[in-house]
Specification:
Rossmann fold; globular; about 250 residues; binds 1,4-dihydronicotinamide adenine dinucleotide; about 45% helix
Length: about 250
């Protein structure tokens, strides 16, 4: 292993957008650390992508253990150049049926875990005087989508946190950005759209490009934002949505 090889940490890197990002960064020469709860899925991803991929089985809602997770990554790989906070869960339920426990679980996974992990990784990036922290937001942070209360609250928090972290960390050499994907075909979006043909139709008719995105579309944007080509971009929320947000 070369100490000068760039290291990316991708949460939820064994499926959907995270898997596509893991493939893109590994192909781009990064040592690619993928974090997820399911050991089998992680090892499957490693077998598919190759030896640049290093799986860590970990439930990110175990906040107290995140500092130890970061330490063990650093013990093995010495530095972290890019952190991608991608892991997330979805919840589609009417407001009145959204119980406290379900709301809390979504906020824990989609907002607090990215906060704790970013804080811990930022300590290392500050020592390095460089790094890129990328969050994955959603159109839910930008629209009022019915029946997606908890998820919307968490993703809106992610967009605010992106800006707040960017102003604090950019002077120290660390860029902070987010991608807001539109509707991308993954297990998560299939779960949200397949049982709701009306919603799927609405998504497609208001997306000028007339199709759902694929995980690779988001992976390319993540790779660009993390590259030297994006060196003057920080605090940005980049939509990757086929024009969905400007569709009438
Ligand atoms: P996915 O369900 O395929 O992947 C999410 C991954 O996160 C899974 O591998 C899951 O195991 C992992 N994960 C969830 N909770 C975790 C925890 N506590 N600890 C460790 N890992 C955990 O979903 P998808 O679609 O790839 O979503 C990835 C990100 O993109 C999420 O943040 C999602 O909110 C966001 N997103 C997805 C969109 C889509 O259309 N697919 C649209 C907008 C945002």
């Amino acid at each position: 292993m070369h100490a000068d090889q760039a290291v990316v940490v991708i949460t939820g890197g064994a499926s959907g957008l995270g898997l596509a990002m893991a493939k893109r960064f590994a192909a781009g020469g990064y040592i690619t650390i993928i974090i997820g709860r399911n050991k089998n899925k992680l090892h499957h991803a490693q077998a598919e992508i190759g030896s640049r991929v290093h799986p860590y089985t970990f439930d990110l809602t175990r906040f107290e253990e995140i500092p130890q997770l970061v330490k063990s990554i650093l013990d093995q790989h010495q530095h972290i150049d890019v952190l991608i906070n991608n892991a997330g869960i979805h919840l589609k339920k009417p407001l009145l049926e959204t119980e406290n426990a379900a709301f809390t679980e979504v906020v824990h996974t989609n907002l607090i875990a990215p906060f704790v992990l970013s804080r811990e990784v930022a300590k290392q990036m500050i020592n390095q005087k460089k790094g890129h922290i990328l969050f994955i937001s959603s159109m839910a942070a930008q629209y009022g989508i019915p029946q997606v209360i908890a998820y919307t609250a968490a993703k809106a928090g992610i967009e605010g946190m992106t800006r707040a972290m960017a102003v604090e960390l950019s002077p120290l050499g660390i860029r902070v950005n987010a991608i807001a994907p539109g509707f991308i075909e993954t297990d998560m979006s299939n779960g949200a759209l397949d049982n709701d043909p009306q919603r799927k139709e609405r998504v497609l008719t208001r997306t000028p490009m007339g199709k759902l995105g694929c995980p690779e579309d988001v992976a390319e944007a993540a790779f660009f934002l993390s590259s030297e080509s994006a060196r003057y971009i920080t605090g940005e929320i980049l939509r990757v949505d086929g024009g969905n947000a400007i569709g009438f």
